[in-house]
Amino acid sequence: MLMLPELIVIAAGFIILLLDLFLAEEKKNILGTLAFAGLLIALGRTLFSFGQQGELFGGRFVVDSVAIWFKIIFLLAGMTTVALSWDRLTGKTTDIASRMKHRGEFYTILLFSTAGMMYLISSRDLVTLYISLELSTIPLFVLVAWDRDNPLCGEAGLKYVILGALSSAVLLYGLGILYGLSGSTDLATISQKITHSPALWLSVAMITAGIGFKLTLVPFHMWAADVYQGAPTPVTAHLSVASKAAGMAFIFLLFYRVLGGAFQEWNILFAVLATITMTLGNLVAIIQQNIKRFMAFSAISQAGYLIMGFLGPFPEGLPSMLFYLYAYIFTNLVVFAVIIFYANETGRENIDDYRGLSRTNPIIAGAMMLGLFSLAGIPPLSGFVGKFFLFSVASKAGFHWLVGVAAINSTISLYYYLRIVRQMYIEPTMEDATTLQISPMLAGTIAITTLGAVFFGIIPFFYETINQTVAASDWWSVITATAR
Amino acid sequence: MGILSWIVYIPFITAVFVVFTPAPKWYLIRWISTVGTGIHLILTAVLTWKYWQVASPDFSSMKTATLTKLYLVERFPWFESWGIDYYLGVDGISVSMIILTSIVIFTGVMASWHVKNRTKEFYVLLLVLVTGVFGVFVSFDIFLFFVFYELAVLPMYLLIGIWGTGPKEYSAMKLTIMLMAGSALILIGFLALYNGAGGQTFDLLELSKVDYPKSFQIWVFPLIFVGFGILGALYPFHTWSPDGHASAPTAVSMLHAGVLMKLGGYGALRMGIYVLPEGAKYWALFFMALTTINIIYGAFGAVMQKDLKYFTAYSSVSHCGFVLFGLVTLNLIGMKGAVIQMFSHGIMTALFFSLIGMVYGRTHTRIIDDMGGLAKIMPWFTTCFYVGGLASLGLPGLSGFVAESHVFLAGFFGNPWHDLGIMRFLTILATMSIVVTAVYVLRGLAKVFQGPIKNPEFAKLTDADITERISTGVLVFTMAAVGMLPWYLIDLIESSLMPFVNRLH
Amino acid sequence: MVELLSNNPPGIWHWLILSTILFSIGLYGVLIRKSAVGVLMSAELMLNAAVLNFVVFNHFVKPFTIDGELMGIFIIAVAAAEAVVAMAIFVAIFKHKKSIDITHIETMKG
Amino acid sequence: MNEGFILSNAWLIPAIPLISFFLVGMFIRPASKQAAGLVATSAVFLSAACAYMLAWEYYQAFAPEYQSIVPWSIEWLRYQEFLSVSVGVLVDPTSILLMVVVTTVSSLVHLYSIGYMHGEEGYGRYFTYLNLFTFSMLGLVVAPNIMQMFVCWELVGASSFLLIGYYYDKPSAVSASKKAFIVTRFADLGFLLGILILGYFGYHVYGVLSDSSTSVLAEMNQYSSTAIQPFDFKFLNHPAVIAQFADQGSLLGGISMLTLAMVLIFAGAAGKSAMFPLHIWLPDAMEGPTPVSALIHAATMVVAGVYLVARLFPVYAASGSALLIVAYIGAFTCLFAAVIGCTQDDIKRVLAFSTLSQLGYMMLSLGVATMAHPLGYTASLFHLFTHAFFKALLFLGAGSVIHAVHSNEIWDMGGLKRKMPVTHITFLIATIAIAGIPPFAGFFSKDEILAAALGNHHQIIFGIGLLVAGLTPFYMFRIYFVTFWGPHRTEGAEHAHESPPVMLLPLAILAVLAVIAGFVPMASFVHIGEPLGHHGINWAIAIPAILVALTGIGVAWFLYAGNQDRVSKLVQNLGVVYRVIKDKFYIDEVYLFITHNFIFKYISRPIAWFDRNVVDGSMNLTGWATRMSGWILSHMQTGQVQTYAAWYALSTIVVFGLLAVTLQ
Q1: Pick from B413, B442, B449: which is nearest to D181 by CB?
Q2: DSSP annotation of B63
Q3: Do the beta carbons of residue B182 and residue A407 sit within 8 Å?
Q4: Does residue A245 lie in a domain region?
Q5: Would you tell me which residues 282-321 of chain A have a C-beta closer than 8 angstroms to some C-beta of chain B?
Q6: Whether A392 and B173 lie within 8 Å, measured CB to CB
Q7: Which chains touch C (3 or more CB pairs under 8 A)?
Q8: Contacts of residue D188 in chain B, CB cutoff 8 Å?
Q9: Does A463 touch chain B (CB under 8 A)?
Q10: Which of D606, D605, D612, D179 is nearest to B313 (CA)?
Q11: I want to staple D113 with a disulfide (CB 3.0 to 4.6 A). Which of B297, D77, D291, D416 is the partner?
Q12: Residues of chain D numbered 36-75 and touching chain B (CB < 8 Å)
């Protein structure tokens, strides 16, 4: 039963929705557990179905190794988000302002969004593609604007929803043209029908815009900073990993499956996008004060590195990108977990507020430092390994200048990541500094994600598995088929 | 796990032990680190002996070899699909560098005996850093090399930032960023090497077998050389070094000037000249000019310095200039001189910085003019300082002379590919530095130690205690040993250098 | 008149131009309307342009399939959902600011 | 070659002081001062004994034609194949001569110091340094190759630096030691470059020879325990090699490579031997303890330069112009120093200047020699030999006086004749010896020098030599009269008393040597080319020389033996000339100006500034620019959702354009 994971997630969502109506407030902790359990089971099922390939609904829903890898990401992201939002939803945070209400709806919506993402990577048809995309996006609008009493939240939601609508309109227009050119909504068919023509370029441009929105590629990134800053931090974390991964899935489908053949010589587009994305992200991140906004720009620059994998002979970069996606997600979640922990306890969100954290909570500070270094691409952490592979792909494609830009950029990024490290380690502690209590949930999250961030890169098993399974999947055949 | 892995990981294991020691027990931490590094020192001796056993039979056959021969190799596949291996091995150069590092870290731990503030983190970072250094010296897979390389560079930020003095954040940040920019260049170069060879393997020796097209070598070599050169304080990228060394705590300056700056020379030799001989030939003269500037400029810069650490830092710039200068002469004598200079300067500058740290710990000033007449109060320190100073101005019988005479001779002998006239001219310029060095060393030392006691406060200061005597004594002894019996070191490295030279022809 | 129209049914180009015009109007609205609701409506207009595209292409390129119409219907549905969410958010904002003039919603910048 | 024990183990001679240096320095000194002194001294006496043994065995084994042999040597520094430096012992008459001189004087000075330095703090340190010096000097003397000579050359420089700065809390001493080291260092730069040139061409010639005529190399390898190397003197001095050198053509600016190399090397020699204009360090070096001045700055180290030139004499001879430079610089220094010597009041400084002028003699006599008429060579080394004894004696005598009077100023002394008879007699002997009155030592050597100068038709140099032969007795007797005759001028002089026997013994021994040293048939031992045979005194030159000397003494007696107003009147009349001479022609001031006002002000400080502000500044600028651009870019983020939308639409079009362009 290939669709089981998705169904489990959706079912869990509905169950929570219903229970939420009947349960008394003090009993509602069960909901979080349920959500977590649902995702966990789905994850188990997904892992279990490794190696299976297959399709449903006349090939409109396909499961293969790449899809499975993505689903694992989405499920992990969902679980982490549940874990991260736990204290806020159960009102265990020291800082009152950062508590969140309506956990039932929260979990439901989160699960639906996750399900949408899982469908997204499995879809092989414009219709399903679009539907699942919206299914994954619209709940996020809601989540971003979750805290009704917080004007920033509302502002973030507004910006997100308006720009989201705009981008989906543009995307749809592009898809429409694609449909017009090929007369089919089946991706494989489209990829065989299309030929170079200004209309195709226009549609590609529009699709790129749509994808750029989700993937926060400069110059389609503008919503990111404000939304990340305004949204409740767990949601920000979710956006920064899940939504980006969804964007990745989307771009995989469209550029690998549809435009792959025609796409070989379009490297330059990605080179340019990658360059401006990472550069602008890094430069603007330097001067940020609010750490969430800071992480937004850091995430933008990471997207820049990520799409370097598209350069060069086509499927080459695929495993590297998947690998880096994982590395990035682990690492990013470490940082966000610490941010959430700190905000929960103190309600502080500025970089300067992290002064002397290494004195009060050395272990957490250490985890944060590892996370930041991994983001900056410092060996032997996973962030470095991932980057190294991506750079190598670009270099292999002959884009040495791009490698240079990327390498210099990671130096710049090191500069601003070190700003935080400096606050934590070098600056004197705050006057009112005391050792902060950390909830088991967050502690566990931080521990696991940190281990991930460290060992994912050192132990070759992960990359090699990704590499083999992806090679076994039908993505390569598709590419070679359309490469004509 | 073979001996090389032990060599690399003993510091790390020590660090782990330290991590699990409760922070208030700083004396315990101190002892653990001392014992760990002590064990490492012994192990290094064993390694040297083993290396001698296995390698000495080949010394004669290496004369014509064009490919480095590795010993005590440990190799496991790591990322197979990328051709990345966990690949350790040594040749004479690595061994000499390991000896250097092992001595310096041992003395460094001893010299930072009095670090009471956050001792735990201090030793952990120190040991992690030195793990990276050892890793660099033994890894022959350029991915692994790079991993260790950055591992060695980064802890510096915290070490300087937390335990430093003066404008420490600024210096630490500048140092880290500049060095990381350097490693960015190196990364481009490495990836180019990898993909230029068809993207099959990161094995250095395999890559060195590939003969890259000249045009390729011409643009890759400067990336790698400058990338490493930044760490080797290549002019004009040396400016991190004075501030960094001035702000860093004792042991860190020792390690950084003593060992880390050698990574630059080592990398430039191993990754640059060895893999890209054509590029080296193309650029040698240019870099020779730069390094000449290094030598002269550093020396003259040192004359005017007021702060003992800046003083030493500038002299390091000058002396590291000799390393790179020797490398780009592209002949056996020069490269040998470069490696010996790495060793000699490592010991020498470690001695200087440890002494400065110890004296500073007593006088609480590093300003040369504020001191004076310390010789009466601290005879031990004075003696060590003078031995170091004489070594740095190349007095025969101490290690400095062995290296510098090599380098000068090499510059004068020149090589078949470059205009002898220019090379000699540059060499003559470089030789000028021995006078300038004499000037600043003697002025500085005289101001600090000789003459009447400037500050009555100093009269009640004490001379070196036992740990300080051990650490400085070891360094002085090494320096004199190399200076008087240079042939051991020379035999160690010469045969391993032959391939580098033969490849060029 | 009727004959004229019935004899010269509009071809694909007319429809495409129409959809393009719609799209452009929508974009224009998104860019210059002050009221959030207006902006949202313009966005919907753009979506409709896309819908029109699908339907038209379906009719002219693949007359005997329904993929395009299907897509169109879905889009309309989704657009509705999107509108609902957007409206909810607007309401929430209106509670605080007593206005939904989006040019004044600029707390977060830089 | 089966010869005596010492000859086969000649390394003992330098090794013994070295060992004792380490022993004393590390272990004995901390334990007991007295022991340190005794051990150090006895060690040097031992090596002196070895030196005599060696001389004896050598002259037994290798008469009559005294080959230079290398009984012991090991490879020390291997630059590359066929280019390595060995540490060894070269034994030939010249080196033996020097060994004897060095060990003798050194041991006597050690002995003397036991008394002189008694009660000084750092007594042990003193003897440690002294041992170090003796070792390095012997190493220099026995060097079989130019590299070893350079090594020991530096070491003697260092130990002299340490000894001059012995009173390290006395600023004048400190600056003097710095000055000495830096000036000689500057000279050594020339030496080093010379070595580089010689090494380079030597290496090539070596290659040529080993290809073409291996017989030559084989011949060189005779009598030496390791294979010949390009740095070896034996190699460099070999006619075949020199012939090759000669046609190596010119190096920089048309100067022949040989001349250039030799001039550079002479620069080094001039630095050590304090030839004009590098002489400035020697007078200041008198800040060191007096025995040190006696040993290092009179008898041994300063003659190293002469020795170096002598060692490379064939090569110098091959490039005539270099040798000419040697001659004239020597001659000039000889006169220049003597003139200054006439005006100084510090007894040690006078001696220092006399040392300069005597060194000038040695240099000039080397300069006037040729391979055809090598008399000058012998004369120079002969003078070196005799001078070592009487000059050491003078210094030790002066030391004994200073010890008694606690002042260096001759005008603080006076009338010590009766107070310190032994010192007085010995000092007088030395004075006469240096004045060149027969039958004392100085007479013979000086006579030979003058003969050599005239013999090779260097009239000017001969004239200078003769003139200085007059000046020398004048200034020497000046200080003699002022110090020992006349009334006691100060308290110190009042209460002066004779020094302890341990100091007087060396004086006595040296006095004997100063008398008899002249009778050594030097010419039959030390010579270059074929033996000259012992030619007698050339009275045609001797008589005028003696007369000139006697006039000098007479003038000195007239001016200084009686009342002082004659002097003051004379000084009045000379006026500015006197001032200029007394201030040593302001050479030091010139140097000071160049170093401080030029090098420091116009090179070092600008460089330091440039580094901080330009180089470092540019780095900081980069960082600043990065942050700045970030700040500017951040203004794209206006917070206006419609701006974002506009960007969005615009960039979609741009992407389309990009695609359209790239895909055309």
Answers
A1: B442
A2: G
A3: no
A4: no
A5: 319
A6: no
A7: A, D
A8: 434
A9: yes
A10: D612
A11: D291
A12: 75
Candidate from A152, A154, A180 with C-beta closest to C61: A180
- Inter-chain touch D611–B301, beta carbons under 8 Å: yes
- Chains B and C in direct contact, meaning 3 or more beta-carbon pairs closer than 8 angstroms: no
Inter-chain CB proximity B431 and D151 less than 8 Å = no
Fold of C2-97: Helix Hairpins (1.10.287)
Instruction: Name C110's Cβ contacts closer than 8 Å, sequence gap at least 6.
Output: A287, D634, D635, D637, D639
* DSSP result, B149-198: HHHHHTHHHHHHHHH--SSHHHHHHHHHHHHHHHHHHHHHHHHHHHHHTT
Closest-CA residue to A351 (of A360, A342, A364, A359): A342
For residue D530, pLDDT over 80 is answered with no
Instruction: Write out chain D residues lying below 8 Å of C49, CB-based.
Output: none
Q: What Å distances lie between residue D547 and B488, D435, D450, D463, CA to CA?
A: 63, 11, 14, 14
- Calculate how close chain A gets to D618, using CA atoms only, in Å: 17
Closest Cβ opposite residue C109 in set D639, D646, D649: D639
CB B84 within 8 A of CB B78: yes
Whether A34 maps to a domain, the answer reads no
Give the separation between CA D591 and CA A296, rounded to whole angstroms. 66
Cβ A206–D651 below 8 Å, yes or no?
Answer: no
Q: Is D172 on the interface with C (CB under 8 A)?
A: no
Q: What is the largest CA-CA distance in chain D?
A: 117
In a domain, A162, yes or no: no
Greatest pairwise CA separation for chain A in angstroms? 68
Measure in Å the smallest separation between the Cα of B79 and chain D Cα atoms: 36
Chain D residues with beta carbon closer than 8 angstroms to that of C105: 639, 641
User: What residues in B contact A379, CB-CB < 8 Å?
Assistant: 146-148, 150-151
Q: What are phi and psi of D632, to 5 degrees?
A: -65, -50
> d(Cα B241, Cα B232) in Å, to the nearest integer?
9
DSSP summary character for residue B56 = G
Residue D488 CA to residue D482 CA, distance in Å, equals 10
| Number of domains observed in the structure of chain A | 1
Are the CB atoms for D151 and B397 separated by under 8 Å? yes
Residue D1 has pLDDT above 50, yes or no: no
pLDDT tens, chain A, 484 aa long: 788 999 999 999 999 999 999 888 888 888 999 999 999 999 999 998 887 778 888 778 888 888 999 999 999 999 999 999 999 998 888 888 888 888 889 999 999 999 999 999 999 889 999 999 999 999 999 999 998 888 899 999 999 999 999 999 999 999 999 999 988 888 888 888 888 888 988 998 999 999 999 999 988 999 999 999 999 999 999 999 999 999 999 988 888 788 766 666 678 888 999 999 999 999 999 999 999 999 999 999 999 999 998 887 767 788 999 999 999 999 999 999 999 999 998 888 999 989 989 888 999 999 999 999 999 999 889 999 999 999 999 998 889 999 999 999 999 999 999 999 999 998 888 887 788 889 999 999 999 999 999 999 899 999 998 888 888 777 665 555 444 3
Q: What is the distance between the alpha carbons of residues B496 and B491, in angstroms, rounded to a whole number?
A: 9
- Containing domain of residue B417, as a range? 3-504
Within 10 A of D629 (CB to CB), how many other CB atoms are there?
Answer: 16
Domain coordinates in residue numbering, chain C = 2-97
Check contact A-D (3+ Cβ pairs < 8 Å). yes
Domain assignment of residue A452, given as a range = 263-484
Regarding chains D and C, contact by 3 or more CB pairs under 8 A is answered as yes
- The candidate with the shortest Cα–Cα distance to D111, out of D294, D343, D247, is D294
B477 touches chain A (CB under 8 A): no
Q: Which of D453, D434, D569, D461 is nearest to D515 (CA)?
A: D434
